[in-house]
Amino acid sequence: MSFDDLVSWLGDGAIPYYLALAKCVFAVLFVMQLVPVLIWAERKGAAYIQDRPGPNRAHIMGIRAGGLVHTLNDVVKLVMKEDIIPGHVEKRYWAAAPVIAMSVALMTWIVVPFGDNFLGYQLKVSDIDGGLLFVLAGTSIGVYGVMLAGWASNNKFSLLGGLRASAQMVSYELSMGLSAVVVFLMAGSVSLSNIAEMQAGAIWNWTVFTPVGLLAFVLFWTAAFAETNRTPFDLPEGEAELVGGYHTEYSSLRFALFFMGEYANMIVAASVTATLFFGGYNVPFVTPDMLREHSDGVLIAAGAAIPLLVVFAVVAWKRRERPFYQALPAGDARLKEPMFFVAVWLGAAGACAALAVAGLLGVSQQLSLNTLTFGWLENATVFGPDLVAAVVGITVLIAKVLFGCWFFIWVRWTVPRFRYDQLMDLGWKRMLPLALANVLAAGIWVALFPNGLLETLGLK
Amino acid sequence: MAMPAARKMTSLESIYLVELFKGLALTMGHVVKNLFDQNRFVTIEYPDVRKTMAERYRGAHRLLLRPDGKVKCVACMCCPTICPAKCITIIAGEAPDDPAEKFPVEFDIDMLRCIFCGFCVEACPKDAIRMDTRIYEVNAYTRQALIHNKTYMVNLMDGIKPPAEEFYRLNPESAPAGFVSSPSASGAP
């Protein structure tokens, strides 16, 4: 191999390997980094719903970051705490349960596409033909984590919690699977990439904007609450009856795994729902090809965020006048906080301005490994437009996922818990027949309008 | 007691979704209002921001002085007599300049026993004791530090004076008998 061969291999030739690594890292980080944000959103959301300020004590050099530092505190606390293994537990299964709960939640994310094709490579970790079936299978395995925890804890309350969890997950899995079948019928594929591609373009291409799709979404989303053990279906942890449910006996990092697993499940459920019903990574009315063609325009559009960020900076500056800051003694570290936020927002505005300038210079249409190595790798493939399309896709998916997760949190602090018989009644007597009828309706719908309603009626 | 029969849900209610969204709209309203007006919170960020107590709030006691700087109290024993918690200890003495009058050589209130009923204020014929300091943080690391003595109560003004424990540490000559500054008190937040 000559030197030039090596250079070109390190450049364009190695792109699939760089990409594979980046995709794996991204998939893990996506879930793991959203978890602390969600924990913060849960606390702050709960507080704001209940007219409280929420967590705001912990700080680093006076910077409290609206309570985000508390999450960091939690991590340190959970890691440093003593790992207690009760004497009466079945050790092997007991230790395996949290690992299953967490790893399954991370695993199911690998089939979710987070952007359109990048230089012809799909932006998802694994292109399994099963697609959504893999997600459904994964969430089913998640039951084992909960069930093993309940059983191996050798504790009546934990066992009850585990039993409730497994019964609930098994019952709602049916409605969930049947609602997914509706989307399969409409897309003609179980691959999440194909389902997302089908929904590109106009907003009414989204599955949720068909009658059968809407019902399927409602059923799927309700079942997702039950699958992730969130209120109003969080009977497995019903603290009033069962102490802590299946994770009563767990402490320190093992408890953290369950805790993070719950939030990771939320993220997975939200991303799958976004992909199935809300177009996944697609921006309404904009196809990925349009993004590639006008990638410089997209960068310039980032400049539109500058006024908003400046307004944020002004609001942050105004915070100094709040009674809290007035009451602080001189020299208190927290007095620096408004300045910090002003710096953050102005920095973000600066970043947006830099993007807009790059767009005006037309950088993205020529961006390649050649640009990054200052002309060392000649004739490298231009990936700028694809990169812009991918980043926009990721951003849009994150926005949809965050909204879904906020909905989980929002419902938790609004709705009281169901009773066990009500839960089973809803799952088996109402949602299952509806889901079955919906599959039938979807079959008829697809047979009547094979290319979608608007096209069949000649409106498109 | 017989439970009233549960109202039957209307068909709209039994779908849950409409009622669910009504609830969601309510909670989101709170979130939006709180986001835009941070002064709506019902909680107080306590150690940094403190509640201003009402004028008539019964806080820690203080002893009043005459214009000539002597304690108004004449050691008539009305307050220890009426005190239901028996927390006031007065040792009376003859006033040095006017043998016809009494004055309290010692005037101790055991704040661990005090129930803040305010009877002592009501009973006082000389308006010598008041509970208008609005101080509600009566706490210390030792029992001795919770005995408020004459020197402390004379110096106690509207919430600006240090807690008894710190006062006794700074003025050891006026501390009650048996007062030992606890090691944890000095490093306390």
Could you please describe the fold and organization of this structure?
The complex is a heterodimer of chains A (460) and B (189). Chain A is mainly α and 460 residues long. Chain A contains 19 helices and no strands. Chain B has a domain at 62-179: Alpha-Beta Plaits, CATH 3.30.70.3270. A three-stranded antiparallel sheet of chain B has the order 2-3-5. In chain B, strands 1-4 form a two-stranded antiparallel sheet. In chain B, a hairpin with a 7-residue loop joins strand 2 and strand 3. Chain B is elongated, with a radius of gyration of 26 Å. The chains are: A mainly alpha (460), B alpha+beta (189). Chain A binds chain B through residues 45, 48-53, 56, 218, 322-324, 327-328, 410-411, 413-415, and chain B through 17, 20, 23-24, 26-28, 30-31, 34-35, 38-43, 45, 48-50.
Task: Provide a short characterization of the protein structure.
With 460 residues, chain A is mostly helical. Chain A is built from 19 helices and no strands. Chain A has helices spanning 3-10, 15-49, 68-80, 91-107, 132-152, 156-187, 192-198, 211-227, 239-242, 252-277, 288-293, 295-302, 306-318, 323-327, 337-361, 369-372, 384-412, 420-448, 453-456.
